[in-house]
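task queued by scheduler; priority normal; single chain, no ligands, no partner chains; default sampling; output format set to structure tokens
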Amino acid sequence: METHEGWLTTEEAAQYLHVHQETVRRWAREGAIPAAKLGNRGGFRFRRQDLDRFLGERRTRAEAR
């Protein structure tokens, strides 16, 4: 279930990307995935189009190897 205005929670983003929630958090902290940070303990929010772009870039890099 998407949150307000198309933003996904960390849990939803992890399910969408088929990875663990901590992996999504790490990628967000590293800047690999664009994310909105909600305060000190509010977590992250992600837009589906950013996740799709991230997946496309990873696929392109994998195919280039």
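post-processing summary
- The CA atoms of residues 12 and 35 lie 13 Å apart.
- The chain has one domain: 4-64.
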